[in-house]
């Protein structure tokens, strides 16, 4: 009995020693939080509610404006749709190493925009594009690097567009942009020198492709400016072209701050800027709200249609080996 009791004591003692280590390694609370967040985000009702709330916010803002003409808004929307859903996917395709066609990139980009419009900082669009790359066999690290590179090229194009408009960037913004570019360049050189095998897994565009992507980004920014012109005309406002270009460039700087579409720092900067050059507050608020609402038209028509067709099984893509 004494020996048996000693064995039981040792077994229980060993379990007591092991149990805390298992609990500390498992971290049940963070996993529970992660599962809860995933469940909320993946819930169809939450997605629909977020979509309806975002569109409703834009509609409510536009409803504050008593007079809105449809024709100028449509005229400005057409080139914007081309810039958003043709130029931007072409930029992504130019730097992509996935081997997919331009049509594939156009579809995936359009699908991502709906999620981007209902998420802060357009982050949902990037996550969807990473997901779409993973579904065709691209490693998650490579997919994230590719989408991040596309974002970086777009940011360089944005800075170029701001410089073209003649807006003097604050010294802090110039320092941050130059520092970020320097860090990216140094990291790229170090990785290429120390880990040459990674260059075959991560996207490294040529200078020609990089410049091409920047030009596409500048063209896209021009279509946003055209949409803003049309929205101001649609609500009955008028503003000198050069002053509007300067206000547009300044507002794009505020776009680096996170915010939800239709109520972000960029929209706030646009309203304040338009009011500062003589546009009434009502017209300024209405023009910016109308611009935010018009973003949804091609997003729902193109992105929504592609998502519906994918759900119905129209787009079947063979999964290649991992790249």
TrEMBL record:
Membrane-topology descriptor: Multi-pass membrane protein
Compartments, record wording: Cell membrane
Organism: Kribbella sp. HUAS MG21
Transmembrane annotation, as ranges: 45-62, 68-87, 148-167, 173-191, 211-232, 238-257
Chief site of localization: membrane
Protein name, per record: Lysylphosphatidylglycerol synthase domain-containing protein
Record keywords, A-Z: Cell membrane, Membrane, Transmembrane, Transmembrane helix
Domain of life: Bacteria
